[in-house]
Design goal:
The chain is an alpha+beta fold. The protein contains seven helices and six strands, in the order αββββββαααααα. The strands form two sheets. Strands 1, 2, 3 and 4 form a four-stranded antiparallel beta sheet that branches. Strands 5-6 form a two-stranded antiparallel sheet. α2 packs across α4. It starts with a helix and ends with a helix.
Length: about 200
């Protein structure tokens, strides 16, 4: 409760303490993880309590990092930005993010993962194409979670068609056409990994 009060005093952001939840669980690998959610009301949030946005947390040490983390400044576009300019946080590099998101496509076939993989590639193609042994890194990432790379196929990715509208429309200002993302993945990204699948 003290943290919630401090956040409100410092930022004006209200946190719903009754719906704030953190729980310790066991994942399918038998590892302990922590999942949580915080509902909050910021300056542009809906006034209705049940419509407040939320932040979801998924904390785990059950993951392999292929690339070293990188230090990034906090993205902050407000008048007090100078207070944060010397603060750096450890984050995934774009390469780690890309191969982990691609693996997620094989694990759960969610529309958001397809959207993210295509967007990352479009924005960072040059950096990703310059990574030596991207295929090898992807294989290691999959092997760690016992994900079969044989599942990386056009027919598997087409499973994202179901739920494309329902799962993405509320997150984007304009819902993109599924076919465009599916075709981009099939014709541009899939060939990068295709040599792994034989």
């Amino acid at each position: 409760m003290k943290i919630i009060q401090t956040v409100y005093e410092k930022s004006g952001i209200q946190i719903d303490s009754k719906r704030t939840l953190f729980e310790t669980l066991e994942n399918p690998s038998g590892q302990t993880i922590v999942q949580g959610r915080i509902f909050y009301r910021g300056p542009i949030s809906p006034s209705a309590h049940r419509q407040w946005p939320r932040i979801k947390f998924d904390l785990t040490h059950d993951e392999i990092l292929i690339f070293n983390p990188i230090s990034n400044p906090i993205f902050h576009q407000y008048s007090d930005a100078s207070e944060f300019e010397n603060l750096l946080i450890q984050t995934y590099g774009i390469e780690e993010l890309f191969i982990e998101k691609t693996r997620a496509l094989l694990e759960r076939t969610r529309p958001r993962d397809l959207f993210d993989v295509v967007e990352i590639w479009k924005r960072e193609e040059r950096a990703l194409r310059n990574v030596m042994s991207l295929n090898s890194h992807f294989r290691k990432k999959c092997a760690f979670k016992n994900v079969d790379i044989q599942n990386l196929s056009s027919s598997k990715i087409e499973g994202c068609r179901i739920g494309w509208k329902d799962q993405l429309e509320h997150q984007l200002s304009s819902l993109p056409n599924f076919e465009n993302y599916f075709e981009f993945f099939r014709n541009t990204i899939f060939p990068v990994f295709e040599k792994n699948i034989s």
